[in-house]
Amino acid sequence: MPPTDLNPAQYDAVTTLSGPLLVLAGAGTGKTRVVTYRIAELIRDRSRPVRPDRILAVTFTNKAANEMLERAAVLLGKRLKQKPEISTFHSLCVRILRRHINQLGYPVAFSICDRGDQEGFARSALREIKAADGLLRPGELISFISRWKNASIRPEQAAAEAETDKEHLASAAYRRYQNALKTAGALDFDDLLLCTEELLARDSKVRQAEAGRFDHILVDEYQDTNGSQYRIVKGLAGGHRNLCVVGDDDQSIYGWRGAEVAHILRFKQDWPEAKVVRLEVNYRSTRQILDWSNRLIAFNKLRHPKVLRATCEGEMPRILQIEDEVQEAKAVVAEIAGRIQHLKRRPRDFAILCRTNEQPRAFETELRQAKLPYVLVGGMSFYDRKEVRDVLAYLKVVAQPTDEVSLLRIINTPPRGISQATVKRLLDEAIHRGKPIWEVLPAAGELDGLPAGAAQAVGRLRQMVERFHRQAGRQPPVELAQALLREVAYKNELTRLYPNSDDQAARWAAVEELVNALADYSRRTSEATLAGFLQEVAISGNENEADKQAKLDRDAVALMTLHAAKGLEFREVYMVGMEEGALPHHRSISAAGAAVDEERRLCYVGVTRAQRRLTLTLALSRMKWGKPRPTIPSRFLYELTGKADNPNYLSAKRGVPGREARTGSREPRGKNRRARG
Predict the structure, then answer these.
(1) Mean pLDDT of 532-558
(2) Which residue of 5, 115, 166, 264 is most buried, as measured by CB atoms within 10 A?
């Protein structure tokens, strides 16, 4: 029997089991429940049950994929002898590429670059085109290349797309960057999608083979798909047409990284026979908060019409006008401290949401002074730490010696007598021969101008890597990593670099944690390999999910950007800096209307994170270049409150327009959750 603990719209989505289906899931409407119930219903359908391994569900984070699988297992119990394939887009693409990438000229055992690796390749590319120092930084080049790749623009097409001098320079470096990746047998994160798209588009046999693996495909967060993801989905589902996509065009906020809201808006054009189901019952927020959010998002004209309906009542949201950014931070933190003290709230009940990465600084200062525990979500990843990156570089070189970026990172770390001049001579020779630097190492003793001691050091490094590379196929990965760390005496290197014993201990603890992660991977995987672990790290490390979740699990005030808050919910939300130039951001104001529409969706996402209490703040002045400058209230404040036709609604005086919530007012009961329902 179909599940009975669903509302009518959810039930309709769950029991529509064939053909294209678009589920428009508004904020807080139980999207994850619908997806997992639908997977379970496909498997236990009496008229035409589907084998679990013939179902593919794709989402954007490992956390969401794991949650779906766990919920499906609970619903199905013993029925789930086989598992549906539930994964991220990037994980799916890795599996497809492992089977077919040799047709694109890459090795099947390709490596996956992280951000640090990319910067190394970018520096090499800029050096090859002899770009003047400071004219184009490696990070800027990576941003240009990522933007082009997300738009499915290859190196040979980039020059035609370039408009500014910097973009033309980047287009010249793009080709060198991509050639260097291919020479090293490596892909960056964007290549996982781009190469999969290319494979499916140009080889009908590959496309048919991959599409034939599944009878049903579900795609979560469809509004966040970029061009490559959109075309991959069409390629895999075009035969059986059993495609269910779930998403909310009103929460499409990643246009800056290639997401195209048009994909969900034109779903009916792509799949004319598609059924559309709207989920509009919100189980998260009060009616008063939803009234504001519904009013705001209606100003976007290109959208699927929907109106969120609440299941509980509460207090009116508030707008606070405060003198400047310092007083804004003081007022918000003081109010949070008071509510924790007098109303027995917990720190984790509160979130402070900002538009930009710079805004949290003043709030951090006040939270520390108030001795309130807080977490800054979106800070440094565990995998960005120097010592972790060093050890991963060693493991990458052992797994794939031609990984040039990793080899250059560890070639003299710890110091082994290989100077920068020696490295430059080796690089020049590699460029001259058109080969990876690894293939030049055996000839180090024959190169003009290379000291004998340096050549011997290069030889010892090469022999060590070759020895561990041979052992990688025979020795358990954890034992291999431990032996490698002992051989290079990495702990001694930390002692040399960091005289403070506490610092040494903390950094070595990070190295041990990496080994623990390798051990955990080995326990979870029947055939654990070093290459498999590095692949998992490359994918999960890019998302930084574990770090984010660990922070959110603490009993602390959450301080984060609006983008980082998507998918979360908090009892009480403070959206700060509600001014023109901040939200909407000044870059969107000067761009086309679509950019402001995305900023409005970002504001909508922030508002709908609040369960019971919402406060929006704006400073009447902010410091710009050391001087206070008057601000203009955000247009979204007028749209939220229904005062868009009254430019005098927010006066220039300090105060609180609208209804002020009473500190001691009773609030409706509700479960405090941070993850999506």
Answers:
(1) 76
(2) 264
268/303 same-domain check: no
Residue 208 belongs to a domain: yes
pTM: 0.79
Q: 226: domain CATH number?
A: 3.40.50.300
Render pLDDT for 337-384 as a digit per residue (tens, 0 to 9): 999 999 999 999 999 999 988 788 889 889 988 999 999 887 556 677
* Known active-site residue 15: no
CA distance 355 to 599: 10
94: which residues sit within 8 A by CB, 6+ positions away?
112, 192, 535, 539
pLDDT at 124: 86
Q: What is the pLDDT of residues 110-148, one digit of tens each?
A: 888 888 788 888 988 998 888 876 678 888 899 899 989
Catalytic residue, from 33, 231, 278, 609: name it.
Answer: 609
> Which residue in 10, 36, 251, 359 is the catalytic one?
251
Residue 413 lies in a domain: yes
> What pLDDT shows up at residue 656?
39
Q: Kindly state whether residues 374 and 446 are assigned to the same domain.
A: no
- Tell me, yes or no, if 554 is annotated catalytic: no
What DSSP string describes 180-193? HHHHTTEE-HHHHH
**Which entry of 221, 325, 429, 599 is annotated as an active-site residue?**
221
- Which range marks the domain in which residue 610 is found? 287-381+550-641
Which residue in 41, 117, 190, 220 is the catalytic one? 220
